[in-house]
């Protein structure tokens, strides 16, 4: 196990390093620098600014300067929001995104697993068909359609919940639902198909033979095995929820990390962009690692050796 | 491998067939109707935010442009980008997957590790960065060609280049989407090639002196047809979604061109409790959801057809 963790940690560092390098190079070969405005600043001022942020010289010099500061766990300064460190900006914006993502994650997993189990247990009934058609519908409706729709119905028409903003519990419900909807559907489909596969196995016949009710068979024995593909999906899901949130954030007017990312591309804010990419990458890698570990705990047959 | 009478089996899946006819019909409408609409509807007018009426069936937008025309033109762009992006990812993915699966051993291991690295990159973020990085370079490049063509007095090429410049953003988007979306396809193709290459007909053709490329092209590629088709059907909605997300965030298709994403962005911006301009949101949303639903139904139907194990 510890050997596995070590090797994975090593390869994760390489992955993150590659991603950062590609991001930095792409951001710097993009036309238009971070200090280009509609009114072009005088050349010598631009030069001073670029020097201050270590963005002059050849691409290689800029890159090594950035990589060097990253090695000292320094994400650098934002070129757009003067006097702000990237780490300060992220610390301010990330909590909202994390809260939203976590809430959506919990909704997606619990509702998805329950819906999928129910559909599998009532296979080929109206319930199954309704749940699966609903799931496909949820997958096909992107969050920037369901978002305004939810706002129009729940906030403007019925007046139950606030239309936007962030902070109170009521304000979290709509965006979390909107963010979770497609993933509820993915998980429900995965869970249903995998449960149907598992239901055919021999050990369930044994469970039925000893007199357990069908519900007990499913909940106590089958679901434990059937949930494995869902667990695999959770790693990428966690990352999707954190990256996909930029749409939901923009629809519900939440000041989170998603918009920081979009703006940093438009403002050519290299270091802020790099910082956001690092956060997303680290999260993705961590969640994937976590999923692998959980996998072995759930299924004792799986041995970890990377 | 084409299941005998695959078409007949698909025809029995009513939902998938309905989805297929819907898509065929939509494509025809999207291609034909915008041409037939009167020219007056295609330009801006003073009737801004007019609700649906006999003259403007779906109302007008902020610039007084007819929404029917906008929605159909947007559908053309969205579906086109989806198809083109999916095709690019199909070519890359198929080629990559075939080489990886057929080569096997270390080459395969290396190519699969590379895919894992690419898949651990947040996709939509990378598309954004790629588009930002490529866009201006491509514009400049096209301009360079146009100037060169003008100097050599070839009006046709110069005109073509300025036309190309107008849609350079779409071009860049299609390429970026294609460059990012191919990894899932490559994995599936590779898995299939691993199975196929152990089959006797491959051994036989190798024994008869067929080279690696020949085996790949003549024997493996035809057998991958159905799986590639299924992947393509499921990649198109994914690409359409990505495109609309970008356009919705203002990083994709820009005025005067339209796509479903950019139309929805314009619609979402004017939502307010006092005065609802519902037609700006409802029509693009309906058409987009219906199209994505049809594509997903069709893809699911195809997958069930060719992979009975995964029947859901």
Description:
- The complex is a heterodimer of chains A (306) and B (312).
- Chain A is mainly α and 306 residues long.
- Chain A has 2 domains: 2-71, no CATH class; 87-298, MetI-like fold.
- Helix content of chain A is 75%, strand content 0%.
- In chain A, helix 4 (86-121) packs antiparallel against helix 5 (126-140) and helix 4 (86-121) runs parallel beside helix 12 (270-298).
- Chain A is flat, with a radius of gyration of 24 Å.
- In chain A, 40% of the residues are buried.
- Chain B has 312 residues and is mostly helical.
- Chain B has one domain (13-31, 59-307): Orthogonal Bundle (MetI-like fold), CATH 1.10.3720.10.
- Chain B is 77% helix and 0% strand.
- Chain B contains 13 helices and no strands.
- Chain B has helices at 6-12, 14-36, 39-42, 67-103, 105-119, 123-151, 155-166, 168-181, 183-196, 200-207, 212-248, 260-269, 278-306.
- Chain B is globular, with a radius of gyration of 23 Å.
- The mean pLDDT of chain B is 81.
Give the name of the CATH superfamily of the largest domain in chain A.
MetI-like
Give the full name of the CATH homologous superfamily of chain B.
MetI-like
Helix fraction of chain A, binned, reads over 70%
The main pleated sheet of chain B reads as: none
CATH class of chain B: Mainly Alpha
Q: Write down the secondary-structure element order of chain B.
A: HHHHHHHHHHHHH
- Residue-averaged pLDDT of chain B: 81
By CATH, the architecture of chain B is named Orthogonal Bundle
User: N- to C-terminal separation of chain B?
Assistant: 21 Å
CATH topology name of the largest domain in chain A, in short, is MetI-like fold
Name the average pLDDT of chain A: 81
The name of the CATH architecture of the largest domain in chain A is: Orthogonal Bundle
Q: How many distinct helices of chain A? A: 12
Shape of chain A: flat
| Total DSSP helices of chain B | 13
């Amino acid at each position: 196990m510890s050997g596995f963790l070590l090797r994975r940690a090593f390869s994760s560092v390489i992955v993150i390093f590659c991603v950062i390098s590609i991001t930095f190079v792409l951001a710097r070969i993009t036309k238009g620098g971070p200090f280009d405005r509609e009114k072009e600043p005088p050349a010598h001022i631009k030069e001073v600014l670029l020097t201050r942020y270590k963005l002059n010289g050849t691409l290689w010099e800029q890159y090594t300067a950035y990589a060097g500061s990253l090695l000292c766990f320094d994400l650098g300064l934002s070129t757009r929001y003067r006097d702000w460190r990237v780490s300060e900006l992220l610390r301010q914006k990330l909590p909202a995104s994390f809260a939203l993502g976590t809430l959506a994650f919990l909704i997606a997993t619990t509702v998805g697993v329950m819906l999928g189990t129910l559909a599998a247990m009532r296979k080929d009934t109206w319930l199954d068909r309704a749940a699966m058609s609903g799931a496909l519908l949820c997958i096909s409706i992107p969050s920037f359609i369901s978002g305004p729709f939810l706002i129009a119905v729940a906030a403007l028409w019925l007046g139950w919940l606030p239309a936007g903003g962030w902070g109170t519990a009521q304000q979290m419900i709509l965006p979390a639902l909107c963010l979770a909807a497609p993933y509820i559907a993915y998980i429900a489909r995965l869970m249903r198909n995998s449960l149907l596969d598992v239901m055919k196995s021999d050990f369930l016949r044994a469970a039925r033979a000893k007199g357990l009710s069908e519900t007990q068979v499913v909940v106590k024995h089958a679901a434990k095995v059937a949930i494995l593909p869902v667990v695999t999906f959770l790693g990428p899901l966690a990352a999707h929820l954190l990256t996909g949130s930029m749409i939901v954030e923009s629809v519900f007017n939440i000041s989170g990390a998603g918009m920081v990312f979009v703006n940093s591309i438009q403002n050519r804010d290299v270091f802020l962009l790099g910082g956001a990419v690092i956060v997303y990458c680290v999260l993705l890698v961590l969640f994937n690692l976590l999923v692998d570990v959980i996998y072995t705990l759930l299924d004792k047959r799986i041995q970890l050796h990377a | 491998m084409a299941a005998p009478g695959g078409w007949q089996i698909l025809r029995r899946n009513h939902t998938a067939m309905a989805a297929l006819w819907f898509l065929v019909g939509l494509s025809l409408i999207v291609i034909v109707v915008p041409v037939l609409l009167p020219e007056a509807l295609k330009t801006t007018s003073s009737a801004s935010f007019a609700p649906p009426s006999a003259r403007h069936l779906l109302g007008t937008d902020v610039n007084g442009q007819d929404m029917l025309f906008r929605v159909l033109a947007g559908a053309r762009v969205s579906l086109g980008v989806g198809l083109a992006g999916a095709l690019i990812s199909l070519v890359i993915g198929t080629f990559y997957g075939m080489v990886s699966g057929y080569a096997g051993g270390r080459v395969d291991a290396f190519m699969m590790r590379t895919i894992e690295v690419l898949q651990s990159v947040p996709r939509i973020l990378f598309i954004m960065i790629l588009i930002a990085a490529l866009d201006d370079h491509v514009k400049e490049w096209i301009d360079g060609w146009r100037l060169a063509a003008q100097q050599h007095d070839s009006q046709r090429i110069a005109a073509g280049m300025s036309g190309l410049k107008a849609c350079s953003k779409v071009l860049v988007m299609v390429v970026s989407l294609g460059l990012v979306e191919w990894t899932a396809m490559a994995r599936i193709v590779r898995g299939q090639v691993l199975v196929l290459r152990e089959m006797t007909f491959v051994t036989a053709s190798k024994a008869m002196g067929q080279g690696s490329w020949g085996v790949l092209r003549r024997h493996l590629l035809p057998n991958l047809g159905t799986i590639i088709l299924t992947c393509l059907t499921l990649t198109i909605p994914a690409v359409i979604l990505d495109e609309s997300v970008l356009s919705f965030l203002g990083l994709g298709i820009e005025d005067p061109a339209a796509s479903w994403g950019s139309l929805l962005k314009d619609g979402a911006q004017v939502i307010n409790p006092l005065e609802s301009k519902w037609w700006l949101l409802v029509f693009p949303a309906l058409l987009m959801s219906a199209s994505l639903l049809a594509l997903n139904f069709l893809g699911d139907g195809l997958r069930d057809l060719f992979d009975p194990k995964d029947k859901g």
